[in-house]
Amino acid sequence: MIKIKLTTLLLCSSLMAGCASNMSTNARSPALNDNFSKTKALFEDIVGSEHEKPEISKLNLFLTRMPKGGDLHHHYSGTIYAETYLDWVKEKGWHIDSCNFKIITDASKADPKCQTLTVDELLKQDPLYRKLLTLWSDKDFSNHFHEQVPPDSNFFNTFGYFGAAANVNQNIGVKIIKARALAENVSYIETQYSRTGVKSKHLLSDSERQQFINTLLKVDNQQDANATFDSIVEAYAKTSHFNQGVNDFVEEVRALHEGIDDENFTMRYQTYTARVQDPLQVFTELYSGFLATDKSELLVGVNIVAPENNHVALRDYTLHMYMFNYLSAKYPHVKKALHAGELTLGMVRPKDLLFHMKQAREIAGANRIGHGIDIPYEQDALAQLQDLKENAAVEINLTSNEFILGVSHEEHPYLIYEDYGVPMVISTDDSGVSRNNLTNEYVLLATRYKPNYEEIKDYVYNSIKYSFMSKEDKAKNKQRLDTKFSQFESEMAQLYEKL
Ligand SMILES: [Zn+2]
Predict the structure, then answer these.
(1) What Å distances lie between residue 310 and 117, 277, 336, CA to CA?
(2) Chain-centroid distance, C-alpha 383
(3) Residue 390 Cα, ligand 1 centroid: separation in angstroms?
(4) Range of the domain at 147
(5) How many domains are contained in the chain?
(6) Ligand 1 centroid vs 104 CA: distance in angstroms?
(7) How far is the CA of 154 from the centre of ligand 1 (A)?
(8) What is the pLDDT of residue 234?
(9) What mean pLDDT do residues 456-463 have?
């Protein structure tokens, strides 16, 4: 992309007069008599040439109306807005602690030194309500001076604030997500819905658990890890609670999904573990997650989430990859998207920037990499790029990367992936926390990197191609996208004539 633009620039500087007239003729050529060419010309007019500022309002209009296929890096609880969670707190009759802005589900346990506010009481005190929004989302983080925690903490802490509300009304939540998706022409969501809820403490005694944890923490190769995983699987086979927990989760997703899919929209689900827990619980969630995904047509993949720079996440990183490796051999059809390389220089010691993406691919066999920001620092980065190009895709989350890691614009490895031809999908991560949407991710992309219209369309089609849907669902979604693009380009061709 960049190389082509440089060539154009060089030709222009050597043939200045002719070049200028060529450019203006190209912009409104009478030869543009098909909808695709007119849409492409309109898009590239709006985005402008390399040194021109894009016309953002027109870009918003264009990209809101553009079919965007799927959002593949999407967290259920991080997608619902804080205001909606507050509605649910009110509906439940819960309260808000005026000191720490956390949800009080049981008023008898409230801190007597603080006020226990109903949602209506909170709403009457605008400064308190505004303060709550800054803690339950990233709202107003950057636009005024106030006491604040580091941005990555602000981001991840939000889940602790709205957590209780995120665990209720999920059937309403997925309908809200669907309505929002349709409003911005997104027709597929692959959401990281929930952990399975299976807990090692309900399956084993404290001493058994501690023994497994101690053994896991000493493991330093795949073979030893597998022997321990075998023993845990054997122990879980002795209790009916493990399978019951898996079946309950499969049923929960089935019930949640009722009435969601239709001719305009498809939703599928991932389950995950949080990488900051003890290794036995991580294994328990992954094992139950793989089994649930193997059993359900609606669950299509397994993920690993939570801050990658957390000290437990760093300590156990390779052990977690061994878990994925072991479970992949047991359940070879289960797809994996792993948050990997959501790190940058200064955030962790340099040694932790060398291998996360590599192990996510080579040991865990990730089909997609979430974020992939540390690629410039990884060992064997070039071999990894070739591998990603041939065998995987990277999920790009521009807003989240800028907020959490401070990585944006020319520093973002989008430029490396683009030049190398690594397949990418554009996604939101947590649009409720970030208070954005998928359209805005495309606006950022177009503004910063000025891809041409064909490249934008490639990203949209990648979101179906690299999704974890079944073959039949992919074919259906691809056909739907073709139809939607045909309608969109017809509409944009008319706009091209008017603007
Ligand atoms: Zn994420």
Answers:
(1) 33, 10, 21
(2) 25
(3) 23
(4) 80-166
(5) 2
(6) 27
(7) 15
(8) 98
(9) 98
> How far apart are the CA of 85 and the centre of ligand 1, in A?
20
213 CA → ligand 1 middle, Å = 27
Contacts of 83 (CB under 8 A, 6+ apart): 133
Q: What is the pLDDT of residues 353-376, one digit of tens each?
A: 999 999 999 999 999 999 999 999
* CA 155 / ligand 1 centre spacing (Å): 11
Q: Which helix (H) or strand (E) holds 16?
A: helix 16-27
Q: Which residues surround ligand 1, an ion (CB under 5 A)?
A: 429
Cα(370) to centroid(ligand 1), Å:
7
Per-residue pLDDT tens digits for 426-447: 999 999 999 999 999 999 999 9
In this structure, are 95 and 210 located in the same domain? no
Q: What is the 3-state secondary structure (H, E, C) of 238-288?
A: CCHHHHHHHHHHHHHHHHHHCCCCECCEEEEEEEEEECCCCHHHHHHHHHH
In order, the DSSP letters of 118-168 are -HHHHHHSHHHHHHHHHHHSSTTSSSS------HHHHHHHHHHHHHHHHTS
Give one word for 372, left, alpha or beta, with left for phi > 0 and alpha for psi -120 to 50: left
Q: How far is the CA of 339 from the centre of ligand 1 (A)?
A: 6
Angstrom distances, CA of residue 32 to CA of 42, 61, 309, 485, 492: 11, 22, 51, 18, 13
Co-location of 291 and 306 in the same domain: yes
DSSP 53: P
Tell whether pTM > 0.70: yes
Mean pLDDT of the region 16-43: 65
Contact (Cβ atoms closer than 8 angstroms) between residue 374 and residue 356: yes
- Measured in Å, residue 75 CA sits from the centre of ligand 1 at 6
Q: Which one, of 366, 439, 440, 351, lies nearest residue 402 by Cα?
A: 440
Is 479 domain-assigned?
yes
The residues, ordered by sequence, that sit 6+ positions from 204 with a Cβ below 8 Å of its Cβ are 212, 235
The domain that holds 425 is classified in CATH as 3.20.20.140
Q: In 3D, which of 391, 94, 348 has the Cα closest to residue 373?
A: 348
Give 370's strand partners.
339, 395
> What's the rounded Cα separation, in Å, for the pair 483 and 400?
31
14 inside domain: no
Report the alpha-carbon distance of residue 339 to residue 321 in Å, rounded.
12
Same domain, 194 and 102: no
Residues 184 and 332 in one domain: yes
Burial 118-146 (b: 16+ CB within 10 A, else e): ebeebeeeeebbebbbbbbbbbeeeeeee
Bridge partners of 265, per DSSP, are 262
CA of 336 to the centre of ligand 1 (A): 13
What is the distance between the alpha carbons of residues 51 and 318, in angstroms, rounded to a whole number?
Answer: 44
User: Up-side HSE of residue 377: CA atoms within 13 Å toward CB?
Assistant: 22
Evaluate whether 288 touches 242 at the Cβ level (below 8 Å).
yes
Residues 115, 223 within the same domain = no
